[in-house]
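Think of the structure tokens as a kind of shorthand, similar to the way a musician reads notation: each symbol stands for something richer, in this case the local conformation of the backbone. In the example below we present two proteins back to back. Begin with the first one, reading the sequence and then the tokens, and try to describe in your own words what changes along the chain.
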Amino acid sequence: MRGGFGLVGPRRERHLVAAADLEALALPVGDDGVVIGVDAGGKPAVLGINRPTPYEVTLIGGLWTAQVLALRAAATGARVAVETGRAPVWSGLARAAGGGQPCVTLHDVGRVPPQGASAGSPVLVVRDCGMRPPRGRVAAGAWQSVLTLLPYLSPTAPRLLRQSALVGVQRVSPDEADQIGRLMNLPQGAVNSLPTLGDGVTLWCTPRDRRFVMTQGTEAETGLLGGARRID
């Protein structure tokens, strides 16, 4: 025995890896964030909401999908501030989220106070303000993302789509699909599919990239919100 060091361990060769082989050790981990469903290949689709830079998302779709995103964002530790003119449809979610902690708060339209977002306390602002949401008092910023929900394509949609870093589109009419296709530079095949999307299916896109994602509620989410639906 050596004083203060216990027994001498077995002698083994060191484990060495050549510098050229380090790339092979990369772990198969994607971007972190909120798992919003699975893509066409069955792989998890992750939305990185908590960011150190401003991030704006517009969802042309149903309340159910927006509420699932809010619940999952809260589950990652984000605080969720909901700006809405229909508080009753959000009140059950606000009570259930966070296990009694006030991680989801409801605010009247135009009444969202400064949230004090930080790296240790990121914020998602969900704007559920109808077809013509007014310009928000609380904008996207560092560690504060904004998700605007539009039930259908509205006159304000072109402005919102242009300023958004990401756009989600659920089932829409053929005319709306054509307009969205022009705004988001979608291929014709994607445009043709938009009027036929099933409940819970969303096309998440930018002017350069796009991915169809199926969102399925967990047992707890389904018990609280019901099944996936496009129409509220």
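Once you have a description of the first chain, move to the second and do the same.
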Amino acid sequence: MTPSPRPGGTGHAERPAPRELRLVVADDERMVRSALRAILGAEEDMTVVGEAATGAEAVSVVRALRPDVVLMDVRMPDVDGIRATEQLLGSMGEEAPRIVVVTTFENDSYVYDALRAGAHGFLLKRAAAEDLVQAVRLVARSEALLFPAAVRRLAARYAPGLRHGPETLRARLTGREADVLRLVAEGLTNAEIAARLSVGPATVKSHVAAMLAKLGARDRTQAVVAAYEQGFVTPGTR
């Protein structure tokens, strides 16, 4: 059963969701593109402005149309979704869209590699329409981590050996920032973190921003991946 994404707080790369979200769908299967366009295009606050059948085409279309969110098939001919994600995030900087990789299998090394490359989350192609729509809105708002339990399972299976070790990462964060990172890895929103730590949401937002900046992470997903890879949090913890 596909988990439902959670509503939540904000992060370092926070940008308010625009009145109408502009989307690009990239998948080498025409039927998948058509299905995604039908589901997302039916929403009043979403418009699919472009499609792509290959990774190279996706890069070109996204650069030309500047969408808010890209649904990127992780496996495509020519240039796969991982390389396309790297190219877009590397070349567009702050203007880069939010990228959600779409995959058939949850426990796929390609998915983990896409998250390491900077994708903001992932969705299964069999996801229910309402979960798909909610996930797109959540990613556009830069809120809570999508499917934290699934990210934890991916890290348990595919995370490489420790590159620096937990002490190195811990030394870069204050004690409160470290607490926030652990709670972000659990998938908590800013409001939930504030309640857990007995502080205000604005304080949590400040800690999240500082934590992301110190880790050099674009968003919560990249920060959590780094935390798993460096052993700061482990896939066995919750």
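Compare your description with these statements about the second chain. The chain has a mean pLDDT of 85.
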